[in-house]
Amino acid sequence: MSEISEFYRDGYPRILFFSSSHCAPCNLVEKMLNKINVSMFGKKLKIEKIDVKNSYKLVQKYKITSTPTLIIATKKLAVNIQEDEIIDAILYGFINSVKI
Description:
Oligomer: single chain
Shape: globular
Order of helices and strands: EEEHEHEEH
Strand content: 15-25%
Number of domains: 1
Largest sheet: 4 strands, mixed
Strand order of the largest sheet: 4-3-5-6
């Protein structure tokens, strides 16, 4: 993965959500993302949902091999994604965005 700045937008960690319309686990991950986003943050983080069938260049760039896959800031989560992993990755993204 390239420059750190590509993983942040407007001071917030980017959330790239690679999914497929035929992926049942992707629906569960999307529900978790929406729940976390509403319950944890005053300003909703932008979730960039990417259909792997229509985004070949991004799939190659980020080396996506399965769905669901989340890239949150510089953390990559794949397949059996749990809610606490998503929360940890988002918090990690916020911590790493702070410049001292």
